[in-house]
Design a protein that fits this description.
19% strand; three-stranded antiparallel beta sheet; 8 helices; single chain
């Protein structure tokens, strides 16, 4: 009947350990216990540091997982060294495998890196209306790899985060309100005060137009067949399009009530008889 030492030696040869003894196993158990306690302590410190840093709050779970895996990997290397396992060859194999995986998943890793950048910098949030790289829409979902846009015509577009993190992003909701610039034309025969009063009356019909900053109407350009007026006003971001289209319609009705002609480009031909 084999003794305990003989069994350990047999198991050690199978695992590639030159000299596996009961004392060695006890030493490994002690290292695992101490390592587990140290890892728990370090993870608590890491979590506290991340909680104090607002930029990394969005990616805290990912950092926590990565650090946790890394610490256990270090502990595994320490155990392998204690058992006289050839650590150099293990590291070499893992390095080659990591290089191969990184090359095969180059685009995916690029998207993940872009996702981390977006989560840290936070140029937009879910339900923000955003324009980026020729795409405009409401942000429906954000993941590490892709960001989902819902366009005004109800199309769902999945944009790689590597593309978003490298382009200019316009966020129409971040500041809470948007300025609206609308241009209207009126005949030269219409007095400026009457045209301005008609536009201001149309604006006052919309309670969603903000009073601060106050709306303003200006003469912006003298054109060939008309005078151009600029109406500048502010609304909450979520009310922008409702006010935009409704106000355009209301200005036409207001012009009709005030007897203001909304002109268009035309050509007058005068025939002179000789």
């Amino acid at each position: 009947m084999e003794t305990l030492e003989e069994i350990l030696q047999s198991v050690g040869k199978t695992m590639g350990v030159k000299d596996l003894t009961l004392g060695g196993l006890l030493q490994v158990a002690a290292i695992v216990l101490v390592g587990w306690l140290v890892i728990r302590l370090l993870m608590r410190m890491v979590d506290r540091l991340m909680e104090k840093s607002k930029p990394v709050a969005a990616i805290q779970p990912y950092i926590h997982t990565a650090v946790h895996i890394f610490l256990w990997f270090l502990l595994a290397l320490m155990l392998a060294g204690t058992l006289d396992v050839d650590v150099t060859s293990i590291i070499a194999v893992l390095s080659v495998a990591g290089l191969a995986v990184s090359m095969a998943l180059q685009n995916t890793l690029s998207n993940l890196a872009g996702g981390l950048v977006l989560l840290v910098t936070k140029p937009f949030s879910v339900e923000d209306y955003v324009e980026a790289d020729g795409i405009s829409g409401t942000i429906a979902n954000m993941s590490l790899a892709y960001t989902t846009f819902i366009t005004p015509d109800n199309k769902e577009i999945f944009v790689p985060n590597s593309q978003l993190s490298a382009t200019k992003i316009i966020n129409y909701n971040r500041l809470g309100k948007r300025r609206m610039d609308l241009k209207f034309t009126a005949s030269y025969e219409a007095p400026t005060a009457r045209v301005r009063a008609a536009i201001e009356e149309a604006i006052s019909a919309f309670p969603k137009v903000l009073e601060d900053p106050a709306p303003a109407v200006y003469v912006s350009e003298y054109q060939a067949s008309s005078i151009e007026y600029l109406a500048r006003l502010w609304t909450a971001s979520e009310d922008y399009w409702d006010v935009y289209y409704s106000l355009i319609e209301e200005v036409r009705e207001s012009f009709a009530r005030h007897g203001v002609e909304m002109t268009y480009d035309h050509l007058n031909v005068h025939v002179v008889e000789r």
